[in-house]
Write a structure and sequence with these properties.
The chain has 377 residues and is an alpha+beta fold. The protein has one domain: Cytochrome-c3 Hydrogenase, chain B. The chain is 41% helix and 14% strand. The strands form three sheets. A four-stranded mixed β-sheet has the order 2-1-9-10, with helices on one face. A four-stranded antiparallel β-sheet has the order 5-6-7-8, with helices on both faces. Strands 3-4 form a two-stranded antiparallel sheet. The radius of gyration is 20 Å and the shape is globular. This is Hydrogenase formation protein. Residues 368-377 have a biased composition (Basic and acidic residues). Residues 355-377 are annotated as: Disordered. InterPro entries: NiFe-Hase_large (IPR029014), NiFe/NiFeSe_hydrgnase_LSU (IPR050867).
Amino acid sequence: MIGAAIDLAGRLRLCPGRQPALDSTRRDWLPALAAGRPAADLPALVGALFSLCGHAHRWAAQAAVQAAGGLAPVVDAAARRAHRLATLKDQWMRLAADWPRTLPGAPAGDAMAALLRDSPLWRTGLDDAQRLHALPNWLATQVLGQPLDAWLADVAGDPVDQPWRWAAQGASPLAVLLHSQRAARALATPVGALDLLAEAAHCLPALAELMTQPGFAMRPHWQGRVPDTGPWSRQAGALPCASAGERLAARLIETLRLAGPDGDDWLAMGALPLAPGEGLAWVEMARGLLVHRVRLQDSADGPLLADARVLAPTEWNVHPQGHLAQSLAALDPADAEAAARLAVAFDPCVAFEVAPPGAEQNPAMPQRRQEDPRCMN
């Protein structure tokens, strides 16, 4: 079974106030696991490797294989609706299940767990359309204390301060949770989000070429820099990300935008053929921009995978020269709470630990660990 004998997801050690400020045991397993397999097996393979956000990986893998076969997959309304709903669930799980567990100073998670159970997103007896139809009213009455469209309009006018004003005045478990993290607003982060989709016809083939380079998937770069990617970097509209607090708020804002009337169109997704037998697909998923690249070879039994590569959001965000690493390096070495808040704000989607001052940089030696074993995105 995948992951039975090796740590596929890896883990991350945060070393505040030090250089380097990040240690990682993550590895690029997909090329070795995929080589020689039937191309049709790739969606199931990546769904097993990347269990959280698996829907996005499966879609991107299938679209990349189709593009490599010379097809341009059509992103129809049904695909957008399915991706919207799956991403809503991912984001809501992050807010309601992971934030209470991983953010320092967060209130006990019982109230958020009850809110999660009550959400229409998982309500039995409803189909997907009914879940999405019920969501705005549930959010208005159980979470926001006002109509969803009014909340979104207020935040659109002031995305930096309005989420925190709402949190300070609100009584819902989510408002209380966000208010508990107001110290994150003082944790400055560099600004410079990944932006490949504005000029996709030029940028994505260039990225595809870089993805063939050994080691690129684990240490990506673009035009001499290491940008980050997340809910603040969407093609449909960027959100402020100059602090850990703004990045936390961006995840909340995106979750509510996905629940709103334009939610189907919020996340970009697409694919393109690169050359005969080669294809690329991309999708904006919960943690940022995901890219899959495949190269096929013919066989008597159908196309096989000659090469399969994935560039996950985590590799931009936990890059040793990236924005999270820079922010960690600027901290007091003893400030474990600030380090944890920064990590959750960038959302590495991998188990992390904060090294105590003076500790050797060895990610195999757990200190303060925050586990998220469900994925390796």
